[in-house]
Amino acid sequence: MSYNIALQFEDGVTRIIPCEANELVADAAYRAKINIPLDCRDGACGTCKCHCESGTFTMGDYIEDALADDEAAQGYVLTCQMKPTSDCVVRIPASSAACKTEVSTYAGRMARIARDSSTTVSFTLQAERPIAFLPGQYVNLLVPGSKETRSFSFSSAPNRTELAFLIRDVPNGMMSTYMRSKAQTDDFMMFSGPYGSFYLRPAVRPILMLAGGTGLAPFLSMLLWLKDNPTEQPILLGYGVNSNEDLVELGTLAELKSALPNFNFFTCVVDRESGHAKLGYVTEHLSPGDLRDGNVDVYVCGPPPMVEGVRKWMAGVGVTPKNFLFEKFSSANETAAVAA
């Protein structure tokens, strides 16, 4: 049996490699031409010490000078002695360049493009092979006809050939202009990645997701992954936008709510003239109880003012979540759509 091992490097690059059940992670990395820092290969020097953020594994023999008991209890491993028993995410304390690996480059063709919203474009690329990434991560897409790239999160589940994206239509933006007026089905696009430390951690406690505008994209990826990998933990998504026309993918969210019995979501709109049932910012529609006395993982994706607004709200209610993970994005006209 083979497992997927996501190697997270210090520079944000992620490489996902296969590792057999009885294979050492260090050997699997070497087979993939990735040189994790390594000296002794006997569990004696500690050079290959990394942190296993999620997943299960067994460890071979090693000495305490290489890996102390308290480090092992915190999830640190020696990759020269580590054999996976599930998919794992392993943080490597070195850059991808130092490990002599590069980010992966892929190609795909435009399979679908939707311009139903005046502020948002959604599209799907058909890749040549399934693309492995952690739900919530992003890639850099090359703008056709240029040498410029733009970063966009996947809004689809990992390990598929169909890759979905949800992007803000920025006036005069290079990618936005292409997507709004030039893109057609069967167009060829190049992209590289995956990147990013904003991805779904193991669902071991309640989850609170807060999305601003097209910050919804990585949460769709996470929720679609959870649909195939169910959890009993409750999940609440708050999705805030500036105006009614910014609300997208509501049908997808409704389908996910039907498929995930522990999932619920609400939407809110800043525009006081919108007539929406919930007006204002996302934090105005949360209660201290949503932080569950700190026993919660909070994920936030949106413009920088939104992230700071959520921080301010949590400080105001005096509750610190177990984990607070965020992804900030900005563009020429992106406003603080959901910040308090």
TrEMBL record:
SUPFAM superfamilies reported for this sequence: 2Fe-2S ferredoxin-like, Ferredoxin reductase-like, C-terminal NADP-linked domain, Riboflavin synthase domain-like
InterPro entries: 2Fe-2S_ferredoxin-like_sf, 2Fe-2S_ferredoxin-type, 2Fe2S_fd_BS, 4Fe4S_Fe-S-bd, BenC-like_FAD_NAD-bd, Beta-grasp_dom_sf, Cbr1-like_FAD-bd_dom, FAD-bd_FR_type
Gene Ontology MF annotations: 2 iron, 2 sulfur cluster binding; oxidoreductase activity
PROSITE patterns assigned to the protein according to its UniProt record, in alphabetical order: 2FE2S_FER_1 (PS00197), 2FE2S_FER_2 (PS51085), 4FE4S_FER_2 (PS51379), FAD_FR (PS51384)
Cofactor(s), names only, from the UniProt record: FAD; [2Fe-2S] cluster
Residues of the 4Fe-4S ferredoxin-type domain: 30-62
Protein name in UniProt: Benzoate 1,2-dioxygenase electron transfer component BenC
Residue ranges of domain 2Fe-2S ferredoxin-type in the record: 3-96
Keyword terms: 2Fe-2S, Iron, Iron-sulfur, Metal-binding, Plasmid
Gene3D superfamilies linked: 3.10.20.30, Nucleotide-binding domain of ferredoxin-NADP reductase (FNR) module (3.40.50.80), Translation factors (2.40.30.10)
Organism: Polaromonas hydrogenivorans
Domain FAD-binding FR-type, chain residue ranges per copy: 103-201
